[in-house]
Specification:
The chain is of the alpha/beta class. It is 39% helix and 17% strand. Helix 5 links the parallel strand 5 and strand 6. The radius of gyration is 22 Å and the shape is globular. It binds 4'-deoxy-4'-aminopyridoxal-5'-phosphate. 4'-deoxy-4'-aminopyridoxal-5'-phosphate binds next to helix 4.
Length: 407
Amino acid sequence: VAEFDVQRYRADFPALQRQVHGKPLVYFDNANTAQKPLGVIEAVDGYYRRHNANVSRAVHTLGSEATALYEATRDKLRAFINAPSRDEVIFTRGTTESINLVAYSWALPRLQPGDEILLTQMEHHANIVPWQLVCERTGAKIKVAPISASGELLLDQLDALLTPHVKLLALTHVSNVLGTVNPIARITAMARARGIPVLVDGSQAAPHLRIDVQALGCDFYAITGHKMFGPTGTGMLWAKRAILDSMPPFMGGGEMIKQVTFDKTIFNELPYKFEAGTPNIAGVIGLGAAIDYINALGIETIRAVENDLLGYATEQLNTIPGMRIFGTAPGKAAVISFLIEGVHAHDLATILDTDGVAVRSGHHCAHPLMQFFGVAATARASLAFYNTRDEIDIFITALLRARNMLL
Ligand code: PMP
């Protein structure tokens, strides 16, 4: 990606300009949360400075400005995921809330003893624990689709698990640990052939891939704003209108009603039925700015730049003695989990930090995946388009220094 002027884009991210322990920050923890461009920071700031008012309730000028800005993000999200209608785009605090919304409003009333929720070995706890909670209440069970040593779903085995007992298949689009990009369209076709709805956790896909929920053929799609350069506490659930219409509200309160008496409440129409209370207005407006940023840069450019970085980082890592990389699926996203033989991931991350290099160490909210690989933790370098080959060189030098200190 020769013509990509990364310095021009890095200038948009104030946090990337800072130093850590006297060294330039090398931020390789993007799968955890991404840094924010000025456009996002200014959108949040501008809302509080100029437009601060509650949404949908007030007829005064600030109220209508705030509402217009807030609702504009819904249109941007609709286009971003190619949803058929803005009414199907529900604002949430993030993927965790989106999945809980589906678990409690859609699954809980439907599940019975003997029913199954099919997950995969590579799910984040956010796509495991809500299902366990509703299974405990209903007597339904969780089944798990297996993966290969390279970190890819075994599609034949997944297909065999799609029995009539399965009421929902819930899986991640991109693994936050392995970087694996799951073939969602193929998988939804398999599930659809059996009449099984599919929920996709798009947390790690949204910052890296073009998302088209209609082409993917899923029934639910969840994303979180902070990993796609937007503010924390923002996100979205998309679901097909017929499904959303069939679901009771998740939370009750203001905004989600048409009429309330003490006997009965008539719920508001979509999407407001699922949006009780005063939302994270500034955050949602900031998320709109994040989508503008991604669109201006182009998701294809992002993918190409990250692919180049992934190839270079993988090649360099593999020169380090004792290196083990978890997740080697072709076409994977720029997430690299690894261990150096004899070195604890936390020690590694701690020493890297003294060189200004931020990587995550731990279980990455994916205990079952760690168990599959037989490790307690890994170190994880997750890249964004604003990272550079020079930063990868600094990272590799820091790793070699840490390895020498620790072995
Ligand atoms: N799913 C995946 C795959 C993730 O990586 C994350 C965040 N680490 C989540 C779900 C949860 O997202 P949030 O904490 O923003 O709700």
